[in-house]
What we know:
Layout: H1 3-13, E1 19-23, E2 36-40, H2 57-71, H3 79-91, H4 97-108, H5 115-119
Parallel strand pairs: 1-2
Helix pairs in contact: 2-3
Amino acid sequence: MRKHHLLDEVAKRVPDGATVYTDALKLYQDLNLHHQHKVIDHAQRLVDGQIHPNGCEPYWSLLKRAIKRTYVSVEPFHLFRYLDEQAFRFNERTLTDAERFKSTLQHVVGRRVTFTELTGNSPVG
Length: 125
């Protein structure tokens, strides 16, 4: 990946002023232009306060396990939905299954997803 591609993608997805944690790869060095960029150089140490590699690795592990074992096949069109589901599961991991289910239902009431929104296609017929 080229630096300008990375910076464009970050600009699209991460609000200005947000804190971004990375390793010391030079590709990331300009992230501090619009974000609070925290860096950990793994050649020097693995942890520096809140800056460490273990912040997102459990999430990626959960996501990879779900894609390989539960979903088996993920269409790129729906990828953001799988990511959102796993982010929810990860962020609510301290809840019981029943509490997580109740929380989900509270966010679903009054919402509707149409066939076209779900699939990107118009219904046949």
